[in-house]
Amino acid sequence: MTGVVEIFEVGPRDGLQNEPRPIPTADKIALVDTLSQAGFRRIEVASFVSPKWVPQMADSAEVLAGIARAPGIRYAALTPNLKGYERARAAGADVIAIFGSASEGFSRANINATIAESLARFEEVAAAARADGMPMRGYVSCVTDCPYDGKVAPGQVAQVAEKLLALGCYEISLGDTIGQGTPDSVTAMLRAVRDVVPAERLAGHFHDTAGRALDNIEAALAQGVRVFDAAVGGLGGCPYAKGATGNVATEAVAARLAALGYDTGLDPAVLDRAAALARAMRG
Ligand code: HMG
Ligand code: MG
């Protein structure tokens, strides 16, 4: 064994948020309950964003209320602002996540704010989370390429990641939102980010639009990253990033990591069942 790598399952959130067809809450709960048997330690199941912006996530509180919580698993939710944080806390989220962007174009399109404005909003969320003892994760989107601004400089990613760390995020997830990163651009980006955030506090979040996500994960492993976000069945995308199809599939990441000698602690048979459920939910 080469060591332990954690897969952070984001399918019920990132995987489903982009589906145009309304998915019944009971189906979302069934997916989470299956995933809870697979061996994950963290599953992102909800998003307390504006229901006008992302209608698919409007039932997030019902999902959190309906799942059978398994011991040892933390159920996570996205929170773009204080209102989202308060909804997430009331619904019983175990972990929240603020989400910013390394590029101005995507920040504006996704959360209707400049990067500076978003960081000011996140400060309010961070203060509330700190007071409540709520663990907070941070996402940086567009870490190599932006659908609006093109190539993103590694230094811009490092700047935003450093600020999220200073706000109290226990982990920063680096998002290749539109799946255009390459092993070279991912390596250059991680070298810059590692100057300001230790590798143990980083996660890789790769969309598989161009089919390079697994290679990019290998590049990130070489830079010391040991947590990867993935969505079972390869569902997903971002409604505000055209072309951002599919997160890398959890079962494919688990298989690649196993072939490389890493232990994920995941049960492939349960992952296959969850992937079949996830694919059936696709419109
Ligand atoms: P805004 O319109 O600028 O917000 O949206 P506002 O503060 O002006 O409020 C407008 C209305 O929204 C008000 O209601 C608020 O109460 C309501 P009204 O008075 O008109 O009836 N509102 C809310 N309602 C419920 N929950 C809330 C909330 N906040 C305001 N939290 C906002 C700003 C950030 C809210 C909006 O832009 C938004 O919700 N954006 C979310 C977009 C999104 O979810 N994108 C996908 C997730 S990010 C992603 O997928 C990337 C990631 O996977 C990593 C990667 O791949 O790179 C994480
Ligand atoms: Mg994503």
TrEMBL record:
InterPro entries: Aldolase_TIM, HMGL, PYR_CT
NCBIfam families assigned to the protein according to its UniProt record, in alphabetical order: PRK05692.1
EC number of this enzyme: 4.1.3.4
Top-rank EC class of the record's enzyme: lyase
Classification via SUPFAM superfamilies: Aldolase
Keywords (A to Z) from UniProt: Lyase, Metal-binding
Gene Ontology MF terms in the entry: hydroxymethylglutaryl-CoA lyase activity; metal ion binding
UniProt cross-references to CDD domains, sorted A to Z: DRE_TIM_HMGL (cd07938)
Domain of life of the source: Bacteria
Domain Pyruvate carboxyltransferase residues, every copy: 5-272
Listed name of the protein: hydroxymethylglutaryl-CoA lyase
GO BP, sorted A to Z: ketone body biosynthetic process; L-leucine catabolic process
